[in-house]
C-alpha cells in the first residue's frame, strides 16, 4: 500500500462556517459546493486557499467517506449537517490505491434522518464491511497521529502520555505491537487478580473463622453457666422448704405458751367487775342531786334577769324624756333665728325695690334688638349654606385627590419593581443611580437613568423584542446629552467609587424623529404590525440614541404570518433585522458570493421591561393632581373668608343677646322683688304662731322622771333578794359536785384497770388465734414446697434424693440469699453471651473444612500464576524491545528536527513501574530557548505556536516510520511565527517528498514567500466565489493554450 487518492468529492459537499453573535456560537450555514473533484498527488499535497473557500470540506469528505464519525472532525455532531443547505442528500466517493484493483468507497448522506447508504466498488454495502476494509488498509481517521483536522489541532497537545503511546503504536508500530500491549495489560490485570483474589479470600475466611472460634468458646462458657443455674434452681426449693419447716416448729411452740398465759389472766378478772358496779350506783345518786340543784339555780337566775331588764327599761324611759326636752329647746332657738333672718331679708328687698325705677320705657329697646337678631340669623344661615357647599366640594376634591394619588402610587410601585430588578441584577448600576439622584445639580444638561428604567413598554407582551434587540450593557447604561457630563459621571463612579457601570452619549443631532425606510402600512401584507420604536416610550435622549445605534425606527416586528413567509420578506424588503412572533432574523450579504445570508435565533423571555407604566396616563394624573391642589387652595381661601365673616356675626349676635338679656332682667326684677317680700311676710307670721313654752315643758318632764325613779327602787330591792338565794344554791351544788368527782375518779380507776386487763386478755386471745392460723399456713406451705422441690429434681413422692444431687448441693451455698446472689450473677454472665446457639459450632467446623479446601486450591493457583508470569515475560520481550527501538528512532528524528531549528527536543518511553503496562506512555520534552530546561509538552506550559511546532515535528518524525497510507494535517501552521513556519515547511517538504514516505495532505490558508518547493509536491489551490466556472467546464489544456497565444501576441 503506497498511497491513497481522493479521486472524487462530488455531490452536495458542504463547508461549515461559524457565525458569531455576542460570543455565542449560533448556527452553521452551509456554503457552497454543488460538485467538486480533487485528484491529489502520491506524496506531499499542499491544499491552499483563503479562509472560507472550502479547504476543510476536503478534510471532512476524507473523514466521512472513510467511515469516520462527525465527532472526529470536531464540528457538527450530526452527519446531515455537513450537507449543503437546501439539499436533501450529499455524496462522497473516495478511490483508494490497492493492488490488484483500487477500492472505491461511496457514502450517500440523507439529511432527513441523518442516515447513510454505503457502496463498495459501486455495489451496496454496510458500514461494518466498510470499516473492515478500511481497517485492513491501516487507515485510522480517529487517530490524531494520522488524521489531524483543524478543530482538533489543540487536542493533540492535550493527549496524555498513555494516549500518545497508543496512538503512535497504532500509527507507526507493527500491527502486533498494539496487540501485544493490550495482551500485557490484560495479563497484568489477571496476574493481580490471581495474586490478590484467592489470598484475600483465604485470609478473610481465616479471620472470620477466628471470630467463629471465639463464639464457640463463648458458647461452651455460657453452657457451664447455664448448668450451674439449673443446679442452683434445683437446690433453692429444698432450702426454702427447710426454712419454712423450722419456722412452723417455732410458731407451734409460741402458740402453746400464749394459751397458758390466757388461762391465768381470765381467773384474776372476776372480783374487779363487782367493785365497779357498786361505785357506779353511788355516782348515779350524786348526779341526780346535782341536776336538781342546777334546775333551782337556773330558775332563780331567770327571775334575776327579768328584774334587771325591768330596771334598765326604767333608765331608758328617763333618757327619752330628757331627750325630748332638749329637742324642744333646740327647735325654739332655731325658730327665733329664722324669724330674725326673715325680717332682715324683707328689709333688704324693700330697700332694693325702692331703688328700682319704672320698666315701661324698656320694651321699645328690646323690640329693636330682636329685629337686629333676626337679620343676623338670616345672614348666618346664608353663610352656613355657602360653607356647606364649599365643604362638600372640598370632600369631593379629597376623594378625587385620593384616587389620583393612589393611582400615581401604583405607577411608582411599578417603577420600584423595575428598580428592584436593577438592584438585584446590577448592584453597581443601582448604587450609581442613587448617587445620580442626589447629585443632579452637578450636570449641565439632563441625564437619563438606565435604559431599563427609562424605557416604558406600551404593551408588556412586546418587551421581549426590545430586550433581545438592545444589548444587556446598553440596557443598564446611563444616557447623557453632554460628553462633558458623562466624563464627570464616569470619573466619579468608576474612578472614585470603583463601580462597574456603563454610560453612553446621545447623538448631537437628534435621531429620535428619524423616519423608517418604508411605511408600516406597506408591510401589513407580510404580517408586520409595527416598527420597534412604536412599541415603547422613552425620554428623548434615550430614543435618539436607540434610533442612532440600533435603528429601532427601521426594525419591523411581525407575527407568525411573517415567519411563514420569511424568505419572501427578506428578499422583497431588504431589512437587516426582522422580528417575528418568537424569532429574530438577521440578514447579511456574503463577501464571497454576494448572496443574501440569513440566520435566526429564538427570542429570550423578557426580564426587565415586563412592568409597563402608561406614561400618558401618568402625566394626565399628575396634571390632574396639580389642578386638584389649586382648587383645594381656592376653596380653603373661600372657607377662611366665610369663617371670618361668621365669627364677626357671632360676636355681634352675642353682644345683642347680652343687651336683650340686661333689658329683660331689669324689666322683671321689680315684679320679682314684690312677690318675694309678700311671701316672706307670710312665712314670718307662721313662725310667730309656732312659739314653744319651755318652762312648762321642763316642769312636766321632771314630774314624769320622779315617778319612774320610785318604780325603779322597788325593782332593785327584789333583785338583791333573788341574787342572795342564787348564791346559796350554788354553794350546795359545788359540794355535791366535789363528792361526785371523788366517786367518779374511783370509778374511772377501776374501769381503767378492768379495760387494761381486758385488752391484755383480748390481745392474748388474738395472739393465740394468729399463731394458730400462721401454723396452718406454714404447714400448707411446707407441703407445697416439698412438692415443688421434688418436681425440680424430677422425684416421685416416695423417692429419696439421689446421691449425686446431694453431693452437688453440698458444694453450693446453703442460704437463700447466697443462692439468689449466685443465681443472679450466673444469669447475668449467661445473658452476656447473646446470639449464640449450637449452629455456631456447626458453622465453625464447616468453615474449617472450607479453609482446608481453599488452601489446596491456592496451591494450584500459584502454579497457574507462575505460568502467567512466564507468558508476561515472553510477551513483554516481544513488545518492549521493538517499542524501545521505535521510540529511539522517533527520538532521533525528533531531536534532529529540533536541532536544525536551534532548539532542543526529545522523545522517551516513560513509566513509573515497569510492571504496570497500562501506565506506559510517550513523553515529549522540548525547549525553545537556550537559557531554559527541557519541559514536558503540555497544553499550559508552551505557547500556541510552540505547541504547533512540536506537534508538527513529532508528526514529521513519524512520517518516515509510518505504515499508514496517508496523513492529513489541517492548518497546523496558524499559530507559528514566520521563522518557525518556514523551518517547519522545509522539513515537511523534505520528509514528505521522499520515496519511502506515505501520502501527505497539508492544508493551510496561507504560505510565506520564497519557500522551498520540491518536484514531488502537488499544490492544490481552492478558489470559491460567484464567478467561478463549473467543474465540468474547467479545461486546463485550453487555459494553457490561451496563455501561450497571449504570450505570442505580446512578443
Automatic annotation (TrEMBL):
InterPro entries: P-loop_NTPase (IPR027417). GO terms for cellular component: nucleus; Smc5-Smc6 complex. It is found in: Chromosome; Nucleus. One of its GO terms (molecular function) is single-stranded DNA binding. Residues 650-673 are annotated as: Disordered. Its main location: nucleus. Keywords: ATP-binding, Chromosome, Coiled coil, Nucleotide-binding, Nucleus. Residues 184-331, 359-414, 841-878 form a coiled coil. The keyword ATP-binding applies. One of its GO terms (biological process) is double-strand break repair via homologous recombination. Forms a heterodimer with smc6. Component of the SMC5-SMC6 complex which consists at least of smc5, smc6, nsmce2, nsmce1 and nsmce4a. Belongs to the SMC family. SMC5 subfamily. This is Structural maintenance of chromosomes protein 5. It comes from Chelonoidis abingdonii (Abingdon island giant tortoise).
Amino acid at each position: 500500500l503506497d498511497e491513497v487518492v481522493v479521486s472524487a468529492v462530488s455531490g452536495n459537499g458542504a463547508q461549515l462556517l461559524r457565525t458569531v453573535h455576542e460570543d455565542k456560537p449560533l448556527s452553521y450555514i452551509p456554503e457552497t459546493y454543488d460538485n467538486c473533484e480533487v485528484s491529489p498527488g502520491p506524496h506531499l499535497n499542499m491544499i491552499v486557499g483563503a479562509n472560507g473557500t472550502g479547504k476543510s470540506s476536503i478534510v471532512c469528505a476524507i473523514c466521512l467517506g472513510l467511515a469516520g464519525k462527525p465527532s472526529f472532525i470536531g464540528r457538527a455532531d450530526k452527519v446531515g449537517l455537513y450537507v449543503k443547505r437546501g439539499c436533501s442528500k450529499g455524496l462522497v466517493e473516495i478511490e483508494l490505491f490497492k493492488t490488484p484493483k483500487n477500492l472505491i468507497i461511496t457514502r450517500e448522506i440523507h439529511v432527513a434522518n441523518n442516515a447513510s447508504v454505503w457502496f463498495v466498488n459501486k455495489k451496496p454495502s454496510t458500514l461494518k464491511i466498510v470499516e473492515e476494509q478500511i481497517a485492513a488498509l491501516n487507515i485510522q481517521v480517529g487517530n490524531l497521529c494520522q488524521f489531524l483536522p483543524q478543530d482538533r489541532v489543540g487536542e493533540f497537545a492535550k493527549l496524555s502520555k498513555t494516549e500518545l503511546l497508543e496512538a503512535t503504536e497504532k500509527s507507526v508500530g507493527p500491527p502486533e505491537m498494539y496487540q501485544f500491549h493490550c495482551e500485557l495489560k490484560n495479563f497484568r490485570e489477571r496476574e493481580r487478580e490471581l495474586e490478590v483474589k484467592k489470598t484475600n479470600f483465604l485470609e478473610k475466611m481465616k479471620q472470620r473463622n477466628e471470630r467463629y472460634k471465639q463464639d464457640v468458646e463463648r458458647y461452651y462458657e455460657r453452657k457451664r453457666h447455664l448448668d450451674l443455674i439449673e443446679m442452683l434452681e434445683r437446690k433453692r426449693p429444698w432450702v426454702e422448704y427447710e426454712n419454712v419447716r423450722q419456722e412452723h416448729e417455732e410458731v407451734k411452740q409460741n402458740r402453746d405458751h400464749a394459751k397458758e398465759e390466757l388461762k391465768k389472766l381470765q381467773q384474776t378478772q372476776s372480783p374487779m367487775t363487782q367493785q365497779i358496779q357498786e361505785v357506779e350506783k353511788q355516782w348515779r345518786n350524786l348526779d341526780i342531786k346535782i341536776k336538781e340543784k342546777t334546775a333551782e339555780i337556773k330558775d332563780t337566775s331567770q327571775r334575776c334577769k327579768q328584774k334587771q331588764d325591768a330596771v334598765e327599761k326604767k333608765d331608758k324611759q328617763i333618757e327619752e324624756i330628757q331627750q325630748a326636752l332638749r329637742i324642744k329647746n333646740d327647735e325654739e332657738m332655731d325658730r327665733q333665728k329664722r324669724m330674725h333672718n326673715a325680717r332682715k331679708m324683707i328689709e333688704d328687698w324693700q330697700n332694693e325695690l325702692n331703688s328700682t325705677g319704672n320698666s315701661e320705657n324698656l320694651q321699645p329697646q328690646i323690640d329693636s334688638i330682636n329685629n337686629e337678631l333676626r337679620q343676623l340669623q338670616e345672614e348666618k344661615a346664608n353663610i352656613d349654606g355657602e360653607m356647606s357647599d364649599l365643604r362638600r366640594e372640598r370632600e369631593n376634591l379629597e376623594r378625587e385627590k385620593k384616587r389620583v394619588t393612589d393611582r400615581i402610587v401604583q405607577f411608582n410601585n411599578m417603577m420600584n419593581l423595575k428598580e428592584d430588578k436593577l438592584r438585584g441584577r446590577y448592584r453597581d448600576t443601582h448604587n450609581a443611580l442613587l448617587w445620580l439622584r442626589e447629585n443632579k445639580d452637578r450636570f449641565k444638561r439632563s441625564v437619563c437613568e438606565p435604559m431599563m428604567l427609562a424605557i416604558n413598554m406600551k404593551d408588556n407582551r412586546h418587551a421581549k423584542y426590545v430586550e433581545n434587540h438592545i444589548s444587556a450593557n446598553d440596557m443598564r447604561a446611563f444616557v447623557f446629552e453632554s460628553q462633558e457630563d458623562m466624563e464627570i459621571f464616569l470619573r466619579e463612579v468608576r474612578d472614585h467609587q470603583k463601580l462597574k457601570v456603563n454610560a453612553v452619549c446621545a447623538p448631537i443631532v437628534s435621531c429620535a424623529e428619524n423616519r423608517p425606510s418604508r411605511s408600516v402600512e406597506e408591510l401589513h401584507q407580510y404580517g408586520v404590525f409595527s416598527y420597534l420604536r412604536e412599541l415603547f416610550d422613552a425620554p428623548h435622549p434615550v430614543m435618539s440614541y436607540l434610533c442612532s445605534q440600533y435603528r429601532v425606527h427601521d426594525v419591523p416586528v411581525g407575527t407568525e404570518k411573517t415567519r411563514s413567509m420569511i424568505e419572501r420578506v427578506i428578499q422583497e424588503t431588504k431589512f437587516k433585522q426582522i422580528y417575528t412572533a418568537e424569532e429574530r432574523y438577521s440578514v447579511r450579504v456574503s463577501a464571497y458570493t454576494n448572496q443574501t445570508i440569513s440566520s435566526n435565533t429564538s427570542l429570550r423571555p423578557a426580564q426587565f421591561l415586563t412592568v409597563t407604566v402608561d406614561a400618558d396616563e401618568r402625566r394626565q394624573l399628575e396634571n390632574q393632581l396639580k389642578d386638584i391642589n389649586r382648587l383645594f387652595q381656592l376653596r380653603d381661601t373661600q372657607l377662611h373668608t366665610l369663617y371670618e365673616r361668621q365669627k364677626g356675626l357671632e360676636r355681634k349676635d352675642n353682644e345683642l343677646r347680652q343687651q336683650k338679656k340686661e333689658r329683660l332682667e331689669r324689666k322683671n326684677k321689680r315684679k320679682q322683688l314684690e312677690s318675694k317680700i309678700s311671701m316672706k311676710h307670710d312665712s314670718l307670721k307662721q313662725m310667730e304662731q309656732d312659739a314653744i313654752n319651755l318652762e312648762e315643758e321642763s316642769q312636766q318632764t321632771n314630774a314624769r322622771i320622779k315617778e319612774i325613779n320610785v318604780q325603779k327602787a322597788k325593782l332593785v330591792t327584789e333583785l338583791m333578794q333573788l341574787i342572795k338565794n342564787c348564791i346559796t344554791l350554788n354553794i350546795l351544788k359545788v359540794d355535791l359536785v366535789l363528792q361526785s368527782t371523788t366517786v367518779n375518779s374511783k370509778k374511772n380507776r377501776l374501769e381503767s384497770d378492768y379495760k387494761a386487763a381486758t385488752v391484755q386478755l383480748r390481745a392474748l386471745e388474738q395472739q393465740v388465734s394468729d399463731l394458730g392460723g400462721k401454723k396452718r399456713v406454714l404447714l400448707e406451705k411446707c407441703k407445697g414446697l416439698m412438692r415443688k422441690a421434688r418436681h425440680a429434681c424430677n422425684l416421685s413422692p416416695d423417692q429419696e434424693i439421689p446421691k449425686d444431687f446431694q453431693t452437688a448441693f453440698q458444694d453450693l451455698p446453703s442460704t437463700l440469699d447466697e443462692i439468689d446472689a449466685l443465681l443472679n450473677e450466673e444469669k447475668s454472665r449467661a445473658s452476656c453471651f447473646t446470639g449464640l446457639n449450637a449452629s455456631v459450632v456447626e458453622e465453625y467446623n464447616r468453615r474449617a473444612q472450607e479453609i482446608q479446601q481453599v488452601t489446596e486450591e491456592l496451591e494450584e493457583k500459584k502454579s497457574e500464576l507462575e505460568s502467567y508470569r512466564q507468558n508476561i515475560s515472553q510477551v513483554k520481550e516481544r513488545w518492549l524491545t521493538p517499542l524501545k527501538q521505535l521510540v529511539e528512532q522517533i527520538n532521533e528524528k525528533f531531536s534532529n528536527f529540533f536541532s536544525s531549528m536551534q532548539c532542543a527536543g526529545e522523545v522517551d518511553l516513560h513509566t513509573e513501574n515497569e510492571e504496570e503496562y497500562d501506565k506506559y506512555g510517550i513523553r515529549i520534552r522540548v525547549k525553545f530557548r537556550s537559557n531554559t530546561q527541557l519541559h514536558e509538552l503540555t497544553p499550559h506550559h508552551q505557547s500556541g505556536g510552540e505547541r504547533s511546532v512540536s506537534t508538527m515535528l513529532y508528526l514529521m518524525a513519524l512520517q518516515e516510520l509510518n505504515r499508514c497510507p496517508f496523513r492529513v494535517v489541517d492548518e497546523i501552521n496558524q499559530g507559528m511565527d514566520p521563522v518557525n513556519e518556514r523551518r517547519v515547511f522545509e522539513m515537511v517538504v523534505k520528509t514528505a517528498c521522499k520515496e519511502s514516505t506515505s501520502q501527505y495532505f497539508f492544508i493551510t490558508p496561507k504560505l510565506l514567500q520564497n519557500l522551498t518547493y520540491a518536484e514531488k509536491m502537488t499544490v492544490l489551490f481552492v478558489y470559491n466565489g460567484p464567478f467561478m466556472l463549473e467543474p465540468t467546464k474547467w479545461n486546463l489544456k485550453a487555459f494553457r493554450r490561451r496563455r501561450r497565444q497571449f504570450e505570442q501576441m505580446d512578443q
